Amino acid sequence: MKELENLRWDPSWVSHLGCIKGCLDYLGVNITxxxxxxxxxxxxVINMHDEVCPSGPTAxxxxxxxxxxxxxxxxxxxxFGSKHAGDLAELQERAWxxxxxxxxxxxxxxxxxLEIPEYYVVRGYDDAGYYFSGxxxxxxxxxxxxxxxxxxxxxMVEIYRVSPREVAEDPAASAVTVREALSAALEHARxxxxxxxxxxxxxxxxxxxxxxxxxxxxxxxxxxxxxxAVWEECRRYGVEFLEEAKQRLDDGLGxxxxxxxxxxxxxxxxxxxxxxxxxxxxxxEGQIEVNDTSRAAVEALKKARxxxxxxxxxxxxxxxxxxxx
Length: 325
Description:
By secondary structure, the chain is an alpha+beta fold. It has helices at residues 15-27, 33-39, 63-67, 88-104, 171-189, 203-216, 221-248, 254-277, 292-322, and strands spanning 2-3, 47-49, 74-82, 109-112, 119-125, 129-134, 137-145, 156-164, 200-202. The longest helix has 31 residues, at 292-322.
């Protein structure tokens, strides 16, 4: 077995970023989770299915996570494709060769759905398949037969490698990181087809879809607690990103950053309240009931939506102050 010792994912509700953080830790790239979540724009994203499906956090066009990586000290490259659009066997062979070559070079990898529909760090391989670490197997598992990757209902083959990149940390470089991340998040919030798949909503429309589903009793129970956990985590790290930006950027932006921090701390607090009403791994299938718990969740979601609206306005003004390329 060929293995990158001590490579593990960083347990996170956003498994994609938990895998990237684990890869960066392995490579010795010094970055906080707040700077990673915010610098990729993910901290300020929401993607909601009309029935609060648990697919919401991962079922969107997430190219921004790759496009913005260079600002944060790394590159992501990989093999991506769908069994529904081509030759699955050829995709599997490409992914297998790609992962082995990267690991042989000492570069960590991660991939989609090595077990459940989440992302997993690929920490090694043998003749049979991949050894991995991720949701449900923090310390590792394997082998996953390489010829089974992507042969699921979702049918996506995704294997990526993470490579380090030198990056400046002066105020000017940090300003570019913040501006480009917030610009991407603001574009995502506009609910454009560029990022959003049919049946899903982003930005304030995402909150509205969530609220409607809870009010009508059509929200999927698992999706309720999972979405709440994911988006609370994002906003919590969004606050940390903005606080770190205060330390990195020129003093003149402090008041705008403080305003955004107030709003996103409020969003995180209201979403935390939803996670307490619908705790993670709550038993039960089907849709949630309309009852006192759901009504309390609606009130929290409405407050989160209103704080998010104010937060997005603050981010707009912040990107304007930071200027354009």
